[in-house]
Amino acid sequence: DKPALLVRLEVNRCIRTISTSRDAVEVVASLRTLAGYLPDGPHARASASEREEFDRAHYTMVLKVLVGGLHADWRQRLTSAEHTELWGAFFLQGPPDQALLVIMDCIGTIGQSSGQDKMVDILELYLQNGRVGALLWSRCQGPGSPDSPQLRETLLGRMVSLPDLMANRLYPHNRPLFLSAQYYSLLAQEFKFALDKTCKALKDGQDCSLRFVAQLLGKTCVQGHKHLFKDLVPHLSASTRSDMVWQRVCWRLMEDIPDRWMESVVTGLVQVVTGPAALARILGNLVVKNKKSQFVLTHKLLLLQYKYETCVLRTLLGYLAQDRERRPLLIQVLRALCQAWSSSSSVRHTPVEQQLYLSRALLLCVSLLSEAELQELRAELMQCMLGGMQCHLDSNVVRIRRIGMVVGECLSSRLNTQEARLKFEVHCCPVFHSIVILLLDTLQISHCSKDKEMGSPEEPVTLTSHLESQGPPADKGSDSELDSDDELTPYDMSDDREMTKSAPPRYIRDCLEGLIFSEDPTRVELSLQAAEGLVRKNPSAAREVSVELTKVLLHLEDKYSTPSFLALRQAAMVALAVVDSIPVAEYLTTEFYSVNYSLRQRMDILEVLALSAQELSKPIAEQGRPSLPPSAAVTLVDPQSVPSNWRQVVEQRIQSKTRRFGKSGAPAPVTATPNRYASVAGFFFFPLLQSYDRPQVTFDLLGSDHLVLGRLVHTLGLLMHLAVNAPVATQMGRSLLDFVPGGSGVLFSVCAVFLSMPGQCLLAELSDHLLETRAWLAGKIPPSAVLLLTKLRSQN
């Protein structure tokens, strides 16, 4: 056997190779070496001690390295068999608790991408292959789990909340196995598996611990998933009928449930179990040993709540009456019920439904008393009967008075007071008549329940599915017909495309990973081609990585001579600036004056800003306009529709009495649409004016790099022109007139100021600038151009 040091050295060497190497052959060899430490598979070669050291100290780190290589090129080159054997096997054959935590953490941290889809596939295989049952059984072995309480709480939280976590991460494309009904049904099956293994181990003399299983059961119930018992309780009831070891396992399971979750477990169990005998086999004397369960069973379910059916009361009270140690609790419950039923305050301040519930519980308790106990409690019951009847008959609610008469008759009959038996003439409506019958029948419930418990349990219904053929059987022709290919026509292969190993990305994060880490030319090209469409298709996902993806695209080089590289890169950056305008614009305008950028990259920034501003300033495509009535028609006012505003009333009256004559129809009304660029124009414009006169080491805008200066002035003029009628247009115009470095681009910028700013703002706020600009323009442009500019301004 290798010592722990050699195992650590070998594992660390393999991890370094997987993390840093770009040679797929080396990575596959390292994966095969690590697969030797797994318990099963064709590469298993490690001894038990080596495997134990690997599981204890290195397994989680190996899984994290594998998760980190989700987007690596070497994983894309693995065949399906190699992927299952050398990647997926690590998650399905190692310690199940560590694997589940890594899988859930990975799904919770990575965004919507193909990597997330792969981890979801692994989680689905994890559940289908019974790994949850293996996890529970691994926690049952030995006297107890050595891990920390924090790790145990984390693991419990992931297992119990798995449907909620997956629904939040995968919405709206959740998978059926992760839905609550399917998952908790599967969890119930894994509970059965773990308890079965525990019983077999105990019979073989092996020590086991049920603490983790009990905590998982309690945490599941406290979160409201009590329907877990619907699949689990029938199995427990059947298994404990004739096996004492199973009974001891169930008793210990219930005793190990923490007190903070005891109420949820006991309440759910009482509602599902069939009969007091089955409840006694599962709970044992828990009600005597555990104070929390005693409070729930003897007080809360009987005196504070009243939503349960009669069968639940029958099961609960029958459970208390069955054992000699629990029988004193039945007498205690009876006294509490008598006190509540005969209390005038309780009758006045509790609803009728709760009075009926107390009456059922009281009559059930009385029916379960033996003759000796009945004689001992005779005086208390008589006092309860007389005092309670008086309180109920004094009520002004008819239903409460009838409940008092019916319970008085039943108690009188049970006490065998022949000389003083009560008899009332109760006239009930049909609905209340069924309630009376129900109360009267409670006297016979104890005998019926005992007979039912002695009988054989119902056989579970098993649903079997038959595989049927999906179509008629194929006709068997002669061998000559099968072998003949004379009738075969050639297949049209004109539209066939060359199959590539890399598939186009379906998520924006896959594009980002492909552009950053991949050295496969095909994958880079596919990522670049799909970037714009994915950004516009899913804006919410694009906003999460907008600045990061813009940075990658701005620095991306055409290393593989990708067709239409510049156009694809520019289109993706424009889409990002349109979808998430403010962060992307802030990043681009800041990087424009940064060092270590080429002139081509700075020109690209200006082009992206200009194109995205143009797209934002365009109105959103309309869905369609309603047809307009003919111009000569007279518009009538509906007398039923009375406008609330008097101006609308006058306008409608004028329209109804106005006749229009003419051949040409009225011009279609223009629907106003918001200018998306107006609210973000300042983020595009002002940062470009901040540092133009500060020469950098590699960039001198006013010196040798005057070509970029001309493009900057044109871009500023375009951004000014697109901000027409925007609130920030005045401030933008003042700043642009201050920025007059000279050149042909200045004329375009000045024209953009005059055409975009409101006329009153030009005269009121820019009068000094206008005089200087007029004098400057007189020497730069001919008079005809000035007249043309004045004409355009008047038309605007």
TrEMBL record:
Please state every residue range assigned to the domain named Telomere length regulation protein conserved.
Answer: 505-613
Respond yes or no to whether keyword Nucleus is given for this record: yes
Matching InterPro entries:
TEL2_C_sf, TEL2_Regulation, TELO2_ARM, Telomere_length_regulation_dom
Q: Which residues form the TELO2 ARM repeat domain?
A: 324-415
Task: Give the start-end ranges of region Disordered.
Answer: 451-503
Which protein is depicted? Telomere length regulation protein TEL2 homolog
Using the record for this protein, list the coiled-coil segments as residue ranges, or answer none: none
Q: Where in the cell is it found?
A: Cytoplasm; Membrane; Nucleus
For this UniProt record, the keywords arranged alphabetically read as follows: Cytoplasm, Membrane, Nucleus
Cell inner membrane keyword on record: no
By which gene is this protein encoded? TELO2
Gene Ontology process terms (BP): 'de novo' cotranslational protein folding
Any single GO CC term annotated in Swiss-Prot or TrEMBL for this entry: nucleus
Similarity section: Belongs to the TEL2 family.
GO MF term set: Hsp90 protein binding; telomeric DNA binding
Q: What PANTHER family does its record include?
A: TELOMERE LENGTH REGULATION PROTEIN TEL2 FAMILY MEMBER (PTHR15830), TELOMERE LENGTH REGULATION PROTEIN TEL2 HOMOLOG (PTHR15830:SF10)
Q: Which Gene3D superfamilies match?
A: Telomere length regulation protein 2, C-terminal domain
Species this protein is from: Scleropages formosus
